[in-house]
Amino acid sequence: MRIGTSISTKKLDDACINEYKIPLILMMENAVLSAIKHLDINLYNNYIVVSGVGNNGGDGLGIARQLKARGKEVKVFIVGNIEKITPCSKTNLEILKAMNIPYIIIDTKDENINLLKKLEADIKNSHVLVDCIFGTGLEREIKGIFKDVINVINENKNLVYSIDVPSGINATTGEILGSCIKADKTISFEFYKRGFLKYETKKYVGNVVVEHIGIPEDILKKYDDNEYITSMNFVKDNIKDKNKFSFKSDFGKITIFAGSKGFSGAAFIASEAAIKSGSGLVTLVCDEDIQDIISSKLSEGMTANYKEEDRINKLIKTSNAIGFGCGMGDNETTLERLQYVLNNSDCPVVIDADGLNVLKNNISILKKYKNRIIITPHLGEMSRLTGKSISYIKGNRLDVAKEFAKENNIIVLLKGYETIITDGKVTYINPTGNSAMANGGMGDCLLGMITSFVSQGIEVFEAVICAVYIHGYIGDILSKKMYTVNATHIIEKIPSIMKKFNIEINL
Ligand SMILES: NC(=O)C1=CN([C@@H]2O[C@H](COP(=O)(O)OP(=O)(O)OC[C@H]3O[C@@H](n4cnc5c(N)ncnc54)[C@H](O)[C@@H]3O)[C@@H](O)[C@H]2O)[C@H](O)CC1
Ligand SMILES: [K+]
What we know:
K(+) binds at residues 56, 131, 167. By secondary structure, this protein is of the alpha/beta class. The protein is 44% helix and 16% strand.
């Protein structure tokens, strides 16, 4: 699914009108019919539509007409300077008049206390309010009567469904411009709006659905911002099929550097996750004093310790992918080991945890190893790497991740709700995963999965995207029945869920 901004929406509109001669009113009607599908008309009978005077308002007037045509009770409020109504909205208003659908204008010029009271009373007698005050055209702080109307809706709300965006959100940045509708559901058109990715907007957007409104694919491609939400089909298309002539070397030989005294669990989880994700040969390199404990648990994996220099050199040279960092310790030795691995390998290297901690004052070393490093920081690690505060990164996650990836020629996976995966040019947002998974070991499991996926012949960037998706997808399935989902629960499920993704494409 594509992510877009107010600017991309405007570009699409212009291209449809000018290049493809598609009249705006036609796209508006497509938007109206798409929205109707999500207004739960089988459940409810009384609707209120609150429209502005822009095209988002026009969508609302069309929705009111279509609801009426389906036998629903509809009351319409139009807020704003009616003289400034856009041509398409005006057309829809004329049709409403002709159909004798009642509407009330709350004009910016008038004294409106009584009308606000009327709105409040009508909301109380309705089932659903459809919010069409502002869409992607919102451009400044909301004040006066607009703010009053939004407050009345928020204070008296029954169910609120917002069209395209909850009125009050800047669709591009996610900034709340003074006041904003708190929607239960947002029915957005063509793009998942970039602004919805900002954590602070989650309480305003509710559930988001994105609907197509008939914009030709050529135009969408032409104005693509290269930012997407990962879809299940993307993952299915990229999971490799195992054919009957395969050998274990075809499915990725990997080495994982992880663990130290007191942190053997991290090493075990990362290695086990890699084995269960389908790597043919997994070797864990760890400190000698934890090697035996891990060996006894890791039935299908091999282990080596740092004293076995020749073996390690061979492993580094022959691996299809290397995972590095979980539970290794934030110290000089870890940094030396990381540099050794990077200097002597030429496969993709996935770096997490202490592998990232030791990089915090040594970022420049990444630049030497073009296009084959994947870092997987959470917000705290990203803050240490970039020197930017956690709150700044939280508010600008997409841009911070993209900039860092571009600057250092690496793939950045910024963990969190809606994990970001970017190489600086193309960006994917992961929609799977949940808070039941927020516990120790989950990052180690993800490192193992990513390293394994990368080793199996899927393009590196795509492999990372798929691993993150499946990791969260398993968590989502398990969390339906489990209050807490641990890394070991995820690991157990990897083979059967991967099969599910794989079978469905081969049916
Ligand atoms: N291709 C598509 O995606 C289509 C989208 N449609 C819908 O159209 C809106 C965007 O419409 P637009 O007319 O550009 O903007 P708005 O309706 O959001 O409102 C603009 C309107 O409001 C005024 N304004 C802006 N900020 C403020 C403010 N803070 N206070 C008061 N007034 C403000 C501005 O001056 C304009 O008058 C999109 O979201 C979709 O819902 C169409 O359906 C066609 C296809
Ligand atoms: K809206």
